[in-house]
Specification:
It contains 4 helices and 18 strands. By secondary structure, it is of the alpha+beta class. It has an 18-stranded mixed sheet that branches. The longest helix has 13 residues. The chain starts with a strand and ends with a strand.
């Protein structure tokens, strides 16, 4: 089986172009994403035909669960589609359909005839607690307490097509993700589990963020998480509507447009290698 390995700020994916989603997609993700016995990745991305957009992107996490959306993956998908000639070379805009965020428009920045960075219209954030979803009936859910063991955190809930709980702390870089991430991901407050972001604003337009991704664990970057972090920063009075969210794998520029309520994310996507694996 031929595959392409791609990454966005170190959040890495195995990309497969298919005519339809295979019946064993979840099992295939578990097998191929294994870093010891497979190719190794945070997730498996399928590029599929669409009747609503240029293509559909379906994402399976490393544990076999399906993600509704992924900001880093959609940038990688856009690069794959353009660089492999799946759209005309004069196109600098395309659309990708996702199951959680609908059809997303993307703007491509080219260098040497290939995609360097992608600006993604991530859509409007969902702030109503029951729709994120959490079990908290509030709109928005701001700095709500969640207890794990003897520790209580305050979280702000945001959905960017997938659920996030953003927790502001004094030092996001130093947080023990492996200690708190699993407990928060599976907490009863989050009926479909949750992506967990620990964030520390350093100024009105810059924040450090570290992430525990639902179904993948600690990753170097999370595009939807960066969007959720800026939205939460605005809602809690910590950040302005445009800024840099700095992740372990690099920086993303995020804008929450006040006029249309949509969030825009700009960042890189890279092809790491192509190969063939026996299945």
């Amino acid at each position: 089986m031929n595959f392409t390995k791609m990454q966005g700020l170190g959040n890495d994916f195995i990309v497969l172009e298919r005519a339809e989603l295979p019946a064993d997609a979840s099992a295939q993700a578990i097998r191929l994403c294994d870093r010891n016995f497979g190719i190794g990745a945070d997730g498996l991305v399928y590029i599929l035909p669409s009747t609503k957009a240029d293509y559909v992107m379906r994402i399976m996490n490393a544990d076999g669960s399906e993600a509704e959306q992924c900001g880093n993956a959609v940038r990688c998908a856009a690069k794959y589609i353009y660089d492999n000639g799946l759209v005309d070379a004069d196109r600098t805009e395309l659309t990708i359909e996702t199951i959680g965020a609908g059809v997303q428009p993307l703007q491509l920045e080219l260098e040497g005839g290939r995609v360097k960075t992608v600006r993604v219209d991530m859509g409007e954030p969902v702030l109503e607690g029951l729709k994120v979803p959490t079990t908290v009936d509030a709109n928005p859910v701001l700095e709500h307490p969640v207890q794990v063991g003897e520790q209580t955190f305050l979280f702000t809930a945001v959905s960017m097509g997938n659920p996030h709980c953003v927790i502001f702390v004094d030092d996001a870089v130093g947080v023990e993700l492996s200690q708190w991430g699993p407990l928060l991901e599976h907490h009863p407050l989050f009926p479909r589990r949750v992506n967990v972001e620990f964030a520390t604003p350093r100024s009105r337009d810059y924040a450090d963020m570290r992430v525990w991704e639902r179904g993948a664990g600690p990753t170097l970057a999370c595009g939807t998480g960066a969007c959720a972090t800026l939205v939460a920063g605005v809602l809690t009075g910590r950040m302005d509507r445009k800024g840099i969210v700095s992740l372990k794998g690099g920086d993303l520029f995020i804008e929450w447009n006040e006029a249309n309520n949509r969030v825009y994310m700009t960042g890189p996507a890279e092809t790491v290698f192509t190969g063939t694996i026996l299945v």
